[in-house]
Fold this protein.
Amino acid sequence: MAMKSLTVNLGARSYPIHIGSRLLDQRDLFEPYCRTGAVCIVTDDKVAPLYLERLQRTIAAFKPHSVILPNGEQNKHWQTLDRIFTF
């Protein structure tokens, strides 16, 4: 499947959404967002076992860190956000 892209138009905060196969292996898709040298992957305990290691390998040059949060809507609260910011 060829990659397809669409843009979420938010003016200066616009961003692309890419749809396709093997996107986590395409470093060039992540490079524009990893320029600062400080990369943190935020995921949950259901998604991390499936994709985290693969994404970490793809962007290894940026020395990514990760925060793995508990899954579920009940865990989306200010304390969770504080945990991410504290990390």
User: Anything to note?
Assistant: The chain is about 30% helix and 25% strand. The chain has a mean pLDDT of 93.
